[in-house]
Design goal:
The protein has 12 helices and 8 strands. By secondary structure, it is an alpha+beta fold. The chain has a 4-stranded mixed beta sheet with strand order 1-4-5-8. A 4-stranded antiparallel beta sheet has the order 2-3-7-6, with no helix packed on it. β6 and β7 form a beta hairpin. GO terms for molecular function: flavin adenine dinucleotide binding; oxidoreductase activity, acting on the CH-CH group of donors.
């Protein structure tokens, strides 16, 4: 594996850097820099998506015929890396990086023609309806019912931990259309307008105070059968396909390197403490190793080889190292990290029952105020997109034959 970029790759990197320099405003960089989770400020994210769409780079991983870019795998990695290093706000993954790929693979011509252009522009903004109060990591145990009635499916039940349900105008859901021998059977993948009669959204307050997650209730919601993606009772096939993009959609290495570098600068005084310095050095080494693993995976795919359970491996390493870095940041923040100061950040949603001080005074430096918010948000990293325990089971089965 050659770790040096080719002249073509270096020219592409320079092109991306010029674009980022010219289009990332201070406000957008601030939204990226002060995001407290994988979901940045919604308005900033949508503004950046519109800028990328004008350039033709909003969905580079899509097939070219639907608006994607004819990039090599290396160029995709370079684009993600340079965007992270420049502080660009992330785009919501629900539409562009997740359900769009399922629509491309399983959708009808009518579904592709309607949804794909509107996902690119942001006119259609999806949230994800998978987890239920009694069906999280064991997703196949879901019970939200969808009963056939003429040309419609009538949906009753609820979904939980639904990110940006208050902003979304569509939700992609897994629903139970029948009960068969295996619980993975009888599940259907359904696209539902959020303004349908019978839908109620109830925000959930996270430990950081943000209202990003929600519970969504469905009371006799009628959805046309034309909104089924794939086949009725075969939604598990669509969901498994989509999970490949949810778990392996972006590079962890650059983000973790940026986090570690920022912490080294912010907590420079603590680097004289051998114990803290050793912990931070270990995290920085692990971030560099993770990037090499991503390079190896990228190399294998580009040469047509099966990377194996790489998405599960990278998901475990990436999320747990991110949690480690947020722990170190909270440790470095010291007593000032105990204050609740969400006005110091740009969270992915409104903050419940909180009014910032009139003068926006911060106890300590901004990074110290942001540290606990990121710490609390990042506790979910080892749970979302399939818990890390599930990922270890996948590795044990696929690699060790257990």
């Amino acid at each position: 594996m050659d770790l040096d970029w080719s002249p073509t790759d270096l020219a592409f990197r320079d092109e991306v850097r010029r674009f980022l320099d010219e289009n990332l405003t201070p406000e957008l960089r601030r939204a990226g820099r002060l995001a407290t989770s994988v979901y940045p400020d919604h308005e900033a994210s949508m503004t950046w998506q519109r800028i990328l769409h004008e350039r033709g780079w909003a969905a580079p991983a899509w097939p070219v015929e639907y608006g994607g870019c004819d990039w090599s795998l290396t160029q995709h990695y370079i684009f993600d890396r340079e965007s992270t290093l420049a502080g660009a706000p992330a785009l919501s993954p629900m539409g562009i990086r997740m359900v769009a790929h399922a629509i491309i693979a399983f959708g009808t011509a009518e579904q592709k023609a309607y949804f794909l252009p509107r996902i690119l522009t942001g006119e259609v903004f999806f949230c994800q309806g998978y987890s239920e109060p009694e069906a999280g990591s064991d997703l196949a145990s879901l019970t939200m019912a969808a009963v056939a009635d003429g040309d419609d499916l009538v949906c009753t039940g609820s979904k939980i931990w639904t990110t940006h349900a208050t902003e979304a105008n569509w939700i992609f859901c897994l629903v139970r259309t029948s009960r068969l021998e295996r619980k993975q059977q009888g599940i259907t993948f359904l696209l539902i307008p959020m303004d349908s009669p019978g839908i109620q959204v109830r925000p959930l307050v996270m430990t950081s105070g943000e209202q990003v997650q929600n519970q969504v209730f469905f009371d006799q919601v009628r959805v046309p059968k034309a909104n089924v993606l794939g086949r009725v009772d075969d939604g598990w096939t669509v969901a498994k396909y989509l999970l490949n993009f949810e778990r392996g959609g972006a590079a962890y290495g650059p983000t973790l390197q940026v986090m570690a570098e920022a912490l080294a600068n912010q907590a420079a005084a603590l680097l004289d403490d051998p114990a803290f310095a050793a912990k931070l050095a270990d995290a920085r080494i692990r971030a560099d190793v993770l990037e090499i693993l991503e390079y190896r995976t990228m190399s294998a795919i580009s040469h047509g080889r099966d990377p194996g359970p790489a998405a599960s491996t990278l998901k475990i390493l990436g999320t747990e190292l991110s949690q480690r870095l947020t722990e170190l940041a909270l440790e470095a923040a010291g007593p000032r990290g105990r204050a609740y100061q969400p006005h110091a950040a740009m969270p992915g949603g409104p903050v419940a029952d909180y009014l910032p001080p009139a003068d926006c005074y911060l106890a300590g430096e901004q990074w110290q105020a942001v540290a606990p918010l990121r710490y609390f948000n990042d506790r979910a990293g080892s749970i979302y997109a399939g818990s890390n325990e599930i990922q270890r089971n996948i590795i044990a089965k696929a690699t060790l034959g257990l």
